[in-house]
Amino acid sequence: MVEKIAHKLTRRPKLVALIAVLMLIPSVIGYAATRINYDILSYLPQDLPSSQGEQLLEDPFQMAATSMLIVEGMPAGYTNRLIQDIQKVPGVSNAVWISNLVGIQVPVEMIPADFREMFFSGQATMMLIQYDHPGASDETMESIQQVRNICNERCFLAGFSVVIKDTRDVMDSELPVFVGLAVLLALLAMSVTLESTVLPFVYLASIGMAVVYNFGSNVFLGQISYITKAIAAVLQLGVTMDYSIFLYHRYEEERERYDDKRDAMTQAIIAAFRSLSGSSLTTIAGFLALCFMRLTLGRDIGIVMAKGVVLGVATVILVLPSLVLIFDKQIEKHKHKTLIPSFDRVNGWIVKARIPLVALTLFLFFPSIYAQKHADIYYKLDESLPRDLPSIISNEKLKDDFNMATSHFVVLRDDLSAASMGELEQRMEEVPGITSVVSYHKMLGTGIPDFFIPDTIKEMLRQDGYQLMMINSSYAPATEEVARQLDAMTAIFQDYDPDAMITGEGAMYRDLIDTSSVDFQVTNYISIAAIFLIIAFVFRSISIPAVLVATIELAIFINQGICYFTGTEIPFIAPTIISCVQLGATVDYAILMTSRFQEELRKGLDRKAAIRAAANASDASIITSALVLFCATLGVSFVSSIDLIGAICIMLARGALVSALVSIFLMPAVLCVCEPLFCKTSYRWRTAPVPAKDVPQVPAGVA
Question: pTM for this structure?
Fold first, then answer.
């Protein structure tokens, strides 16, 4: 079956290339129709109280999307006109200021002190703005932009939805630069390591198609996160480049055996299909491990990237051969020597120093594991944004002028007695860090008649048997202080309404911290177990997967541990992504060298000569693969002004480099020393070569 398909593909390369180009049209349409989600907190498990409370804020209270507008040093007349203009903005459901909170009939001196302090601070005043649609929706983003358009330079719009708006704007402006720089640096890396000037462009054309196919097929998911959007293209470029290199090198081998280059390509396709369909499983397993995160952001990234690898392999098998055949003359015409030096002398030294190098490998685990566990992690997403963004400036002003670093929203029963509500409010105000408490009962408790309170305010605070309490805190989200504060609040609410739900940034960030800490352990173990089993099946061994996975895990520990030694604070999602992706993507380096080592042993070489020959044959491929992944991701880390994206990409780039160094300088020594163990714990390690169809071939670029 594969032979027939390969034969037909090589006979009509121009037709295949045309079909591949035409398939880009629906893919581009699908990409345009895929929504991008910029709200990371929306990926929290929906069974958490904070997520359930957020759903109630959305319906029936319509408070999930709420922003705060600070007006500084402007007369009351301007603020009155401004609130009227804001209420007319499409998508704005309500705008609340002190005048319409308690009714214009109530004199200012009768307004409770808590409410005056909440809405006034020195020369600044604040209003609340509610929106009809969820906080991260396109409609709310448009409404926020229109609100900004009617405000002057003395107005500051704050809130989580506003941060999402600025994040989207930054991403939209920087993404073309990300992709362009990744392509340029990847071209530069391939120009140095490949033997043809034209070949890198052919590779990029093939991989570019696979990237577009992948992004177009995301339409079936409905939406993807902005993190996935930012890193998926460059990561797919770096990870799947190996497959293209392998196919072409196999094609060159087959050309020496066939007069017709089409027949040579047919055999190359057959070999590539057999090897890539198996060897890509380690990379796919690494990505799919992310799907087991309770934080569904992992599933978002995992599905998109695993799908990208599958489409990358499919494109290499189905499309790249046609492109190579079409441009074969140009590829041959512009060949040159690669700039990768010979590592024979280095590998000779590694073999001689194998015992000290193995001891060094074992020693490196101790500081690396310690540093990896003690690296600083941050969870508050706006910390990753540029500090000069309007939303960040406004949030800082809200914290400084109104002592509102976090706003907790509490949804509780509406049938609590007045006495219970009064006692509850008093106990809430005594919790350390609480600056103000707003509730419907508290407004009535100050002597304001019920008929003075506008219906819009009643509807904002009471709906469908629930009442809403807004509690402002001076503690910032994602801190130990706010976590202790939430624990104290939860204990108090248990005495009055055990089913009360606390939500808002503070509660959701705490759940994010708890969820992601478990996710990191789960995904790490799953990725290790899955890749262990795949390698065990390929080599029919128990000891080989243990050694290979442990060695690449060392590279992962070193990569993450560098953050500790440099004092770099990294985003919470980075360790989880790095551990799965780096293991899945770079364990191929170790598999490549082990496969070649086994091959040389079966030729009758002793283990020292075999590992030296294997290292000589593998080093160039490892360098090429790692350099492309390094360059593709490093450029993004330099360009991105969003630290969350930059940190992930710089760790991916560094991880590729560290894995390559470990594979080149430590792996040969480890394999050589452990070879007697392999021989005893592996099925037919040295003897009785496996049939050709089962020989593990790894897409790292050489035969």
Answer: 0.84
